């Protein structure tokens, strides 16, 4: 397998996304010099909803980014000095993930797949896996549960 230089970890900050982050860390640890790109996408309908309650769109964007950055700080701490670059985007999650991956020259995408009703990782995981130009590791919540059984 070629050396992975850019690993894209996609998160909705759920427990399953945290589980997927462990796989991204493991992959990066096996490829010296790898950079983990941590990406959170705020779905555009949700972004539009919040924009109706905030006077300034820029103010809302700044608040959302601040909250996301706080959550990414926990990921940075868990990375233990491993290079991690955090990003937040607004839009359709699948499209934004694919666009980010292409622009950043990502070698692999790692994401969790939640329950079928999950807005972020249900249809999004399928869309990313189907259309990505690089390998995609999709970790179902059921796999995490199977590891927790004695």
Please tell me about this protein's structure:
The chain has 150 residues and is of the alpha/beta class. It has a single domain (6-148), classed as Rossmann fold. The chain has 6 helices and 5 strands, in the order βαβααβαβαβα. It has helices at 15-30, 44-51, 57-79, 93-104, 123-131, 141-148; strands at 6-10, 35-43, 84-91, 108-113, 136-140. Strands 3-2-1-4-5 form a 5-stranded parallel sheet, with helices on both faces. Helix 4 (93-104) packs parallel to helix 5 (123-131). The radius of gyration is 15 Å and the shape is globular. The chain starts with 5 loop residues before the first strand and ends with a helix. The model is unreliable at 53-57 and 117-121 (pLDDT under 50).
What form results from the Cα inertia axes?
globular
Strand order, main sheet: write it out: 3-2-1-4-5
Question: What is the CATH C-level name?
Answer: Alpha Beta
By DSSP, the count of extended strands is 5
- What separation lies between the terminal Cα atoms? 32 Å
Helical stretch count? Answer: 6
Mean pLDDT: 81
Largest sheet: 5 strands, parallel
Order of helices and strands: EHEHHEHEHEH
What is the annotated CATH architecture? 3-Layer(aba) Sandwich
**Contiguous uncertain segments of 5+ residues:** 53-57, 117-121
Share of helical residues:
40-55%
The domain count comes to 1
Strand percentage = 15-25%
CATH topology label: Rossmann fold
């Amino acid at each position: 397998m070629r050396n992975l230089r850019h690993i894209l970890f996609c998160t909705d900050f759920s427990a399953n996304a945290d589980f997927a982050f462990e796989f991204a860390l493991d992959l990066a640890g096996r490829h010296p010099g790898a950079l983990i790109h941590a990406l959170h996408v705020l779905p555009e309908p949700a972004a539009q909803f919040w924009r109706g309650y905030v006077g300034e769109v820029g103010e809302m964007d700044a608040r959302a980014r601040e909250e996301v950055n706080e959550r990414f700080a926990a990921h940075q701490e868990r990375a233990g000095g491993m290079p991690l670059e955090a990003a937040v985007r607004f839009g359709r999650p699948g499209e934004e993930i694919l666009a980010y991956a292409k622009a950043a020259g990502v070698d692999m995408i790692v994401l969790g797949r939640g329950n079928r009703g999950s807005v972020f990782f249900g249809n999004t995981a399928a869309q990313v896996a189907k259309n990505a130009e690089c390998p995609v590791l999709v970790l179902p919540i059921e796999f995490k549960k199977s590891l927790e059984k004695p």
